[in-house]
Design a protein that fits this description.
253 residues; twelve-stranded antiparallel barrel; 3 helices; 49% strand
Length: 253
């Protein structure tokens, strides 16, 4: 039920983003729509976690002011030559239920996150820099997360492009305490209480895109994230990094 509520909150906020940008878009070129699917797996750092591949729909809507792509929605508020800043809404499939791992038995559910805040992007001749500061819109964790990253898109020819990236993710104490902490009521001899502390994760990723046809796009995205000490020190965690891989197909209308 909680995941459904979070999804409904995200859908409602995304609708507000799209409609609030409609007035800006009336004098702009036609919007672009896309529809597809993505399948992937992310290895959570929790002990003995049940890692399952997920198949999810992929929806794209984009114009000069609004962009909805998968779990994120952006509303551009100000822009200049090579830069833009605005609001961002993001749904993140974080959290767990007690039956996701034997090590989580007796733990209260941690809900998936709906995050809202500001974002900015700078397009340099040889690099794109982006940043965001987001707060918990659903107020489950009352946490704050911030990211700063850089990527470069390289045209490899033959309809193939390669985009390596480096991103630093800073997570405040409330975020870490909610997703990786152990309360006194949840603690036992093999799982001591843990409050956590703010921490920074470092991500290295690579996205490979391939144009199948003028309106069809295939991509592979892989990443590895080195976890900060605030997460690695949790008794719920037995990994020092978090890896993910996903393949996506998108048809542009």
């Amino acid at each position: 039920m909680s995941s459904r509520v979070s999804s409904l909150r995200f859908a409602a906020l995304a609708f507000l983003f799209v409609t609030s940008g409609a007035a800006h878009a009336q004098s702009e070129p036609p919007s672009q729509w896309g529809l597809g699917a993505t399948v992937g797996q992310e290895r959570q750092p929790y002990r003995d976690f049940d890692h399952k591949a997920q198949l999810l729909p992929l929806i794209l809507f984009e114009n000069r002011w609004v962009r909805v792509a998968g779990p994120s929605a952006d509303l551009s508020l100000v822009r200049g030559t090579g830069w833009a800043a605005g609001l961002r809404l993001r749904y993140a499939g974080e959290g767990y239920e007690a039956d996701d791992s034997p090590a989580l038995q007796g733990m209260a559910e941690r809900k998936a996150g709906v995050w809202l805040g500001g974002s900015a992007r700078w397009d340099l001749p040889w690099l794109t820099i982006s940043g965001e500061v987001l707060g918990d819109a659903a107020n489950d964790s009352q946490g704050l997360r911030a990211s700063l990253g850089a990527e470069r898109r390289i045209n490899a020819g033959g309809g193939i492009d390669v985009t390596p990236r480096l991103v630093a993710h800073h997570l405040d104490r409330k975020y870490v305490e909610y997703y990786y902490g152990v309360t006194a009521a949840e603690a036992h001899a093999a799982r001591p209480a843990y409050a956590g502390s703010s921490t920074t994760n470092l991500e290295a990723g690579l996205r490979i895109g391939y144009t199948l046809a003028p309106r069809q796009r295939l991509s592979l995205d892989v990443s590895s994230t080195r976890l900060g000490s605030g997460i690695k020190d949790s008794p719920l965690v037995d990994r020092s990094r978090q890896d993910s891989a996903r393949i996506s197909y998108l048809y542009l209308f």
